[in-house]
Structure formats: C-alpha cells, structure tokens
Amino acid sequence: MRRRDFLAAGGALLLAGCSRSGSDRVAAPTTSAPSTSAATTSAAETSSAAPSPTEEPAPTPGTLAEILARSTVPVLCFHQIREFRADDSAYARTITTPPAALTAQFQALRDGGYTPVTAPALVDHLQFGAALPDRPVLLTFDDGSATHATAALPVLQQFGFPAAFFPMTVVLDKPDWLSSDQLRELDAAGMTIGAHSWDHQRMDRISGDQWAEQVDQPRQTLADVLGHPVDLLAYPHGMWDQETLPHVAAAGYRAAFQLADATDPAQPLLTIRRIMPPPTWDSAALLARLESDF
Fold first, then answer.
1. Fewest CB atoms within 10 Å of the CB: 9, 91, 112, 128?
2. Is 182 in a helix, a strand, or coil?
3. Using CA atoms, how far apart are residues 18 and 231, in angstroms rounded to an integer?
4. Helix axes 99-111, 283-293, angle to 10 degrees
C-alpha cells in the first residue's frame, strides 16, 4: 500500500471516530445577536446608511485526522547546487546537486505532471484544506549556501517554479554562504524564507538556553533581514523529538519540516515529511520514488 493510501485510510478511520466531536478542531468564532437599540433603528436611517462590507469568514482548521489525510504532498529537500569537487567526500556528493542534474530533475517533475507550490500554500492545504493544483510538490533548499541564489534560483526561474529556502543564520553574510541581499533577492523573487537554526545543531540534542539561540533568535534575525515575519522552520539534519515540538510552537513557527519517515500524528504541521533526492536519480527514479513514498 502506498503511503498516500495508508494515510487516507487512517484519516478516514480517525474522522469516523472524532471529526464530528470537534475535540481537535478550533471552533469558529460566533457572532452575537444585535442589541435592542440596534434593532429599533428607523427605516430612514437604515436606508441612508452605507452597506457594511462583507468580511470573509476565518478558515476553520482541520482536525488531526483531516491534516494527516492531506499529508501526501511530496516535499523535496536539496542542499548545495554546484559541480562536484575533487575533495568532496562520498557523503558530500549525496547532498550536492550539479546544476545540470537539478535541471533534469525539475524537467522530470514537469514531464510527470507535477506542479511546484509555495510552502505557505502547502501549509494552508494541510491546515485548512485549501485547494492545490493536481500533483503538487514542494521544493526546499537547506543550509543557506550561496549557490541557492547563484545556481538554484536561475533554474527555478527558468521553469517558473517557487521554492522555500532554509538558511542557518550563523553563516549569513559569510563567504560562500547567502548574504542578506541575496536573501532579500530570493524573497523578492517569490521564494519563501524559513529558519534552519543558528548553527545546525540537532534539535533532539539541545536544551536550556540553547532553545532561544537555535529556535527563537534565527526567526527574529531573518525577520529583521526581510522586513516581515518568518514562520516556517526546517530541522537541522531533519531531526527532532517530542521535547522539540513545544519549543518550536512557542517560538511562533506555524509549521516545520523534517526528514524522518513518518509524520507525528499528534503534531503533523510541525513534522512535515521531506525526502532528499540524490543527484544520481534520473527522471524514472525520481518519479517512481514520489509515487511510492507519498
């Protein structure tokens, strides 16, 4: 059974047991009845008054079961986008994607009928059930390499694809890493910027004052650079534990991305799953993996 079928079946079972109870759904705000004095407004006053604008109702968050059932959108994670170097380790070559390989994988997505979406659109879909195009996919880039602006952005723009970028803040404005100007360039190009900790510490191994340094401060730093709030996080090494999640929520993050095999059933928005396609995957391998994993 494919993962999407398993989640859909599990979501249906959960919905049967809890969706009507509303125990995991945020209640929609209620509107009080008009006061007596308002109800006695004269017909003349009513006819002369300008009509009140109609406000769109706030979207209602889905239940946990509904969010889990929607958690079938593939999310891909890339790192450095450059040619291989003679001194690259075997591991480095698994997370380094030459521009030609990135172009080929993007072409495979297009040929396979996939449509890249923005990270906020994906989170809106998961949380509220907002519509997405057929065969959506989210593209993400971790760590903050300068190649994200110099090599990845041109390929994204060639295809007209959006993506999300998650830089460490310790390397911001350092040689070979994204500068503040490049972050603003990515933001202005329609890309989403999220946090990736201060210096890439695994969040299942930090404690005490490290939470503020690794979780809270990077969000503020990026907001200061971009001039608007940042509310998405990607876990360094894709790692987290149950102690991590309340700290991430308290810091104001709306959603967070991991690299584990399963979404946490109690906190699906803070454990959105991703996979890392190695540069060796050709079109057939990439599409087959997306079909089997999501």
1. 91
2. helix
3. 29
4. 60
110-155 pLDDT, tens per residue?
999 999 999 999 999 999 999 999 999 999 999 999 999 999 999 9
Contact 84, 106 (CB under 8 A): no
User: For residue 279, what are the contacts with CB-CB under 8 A and spacing of at least 6?
Assistant: 93, 94, 96, 97, 98, 101, 102
Q: Who's near 23: CB < 8 A, 6+ residues apart?
A: none
The DSSP call for residue 171 is: T
Is the dihedral angle over the CA atoms 86, 91, 92, 95 positive or is it negative?
positive
What's this model's pTM, rounded to 2 decimal places? Answer: 0.83
Burial of 95 (0-12, 13-18, 19+ CB in 10 A): middle
Q: Which of 90, 65, 72, 105 is CA-nearest to residue 276?
A: 105
Place of tokens 């072409």: 107
Q: For all residues of the chain together, what is the average pLDDT?
A: 87
pLDDT at 50: 52
Contact 73, 136 (CB under 8 A): yes
Structure tokens given for 191: 């890309």
- Can you spell out the DSSP letters for 261-285? SS--TT-GGGSB--B---TT--HHH
| Model pLDDT for residues 30-83, shown as the tens digit of each residue | 333 334 444 434 444 444 445 556 777 889 999 999 999 999 999 999 999 999
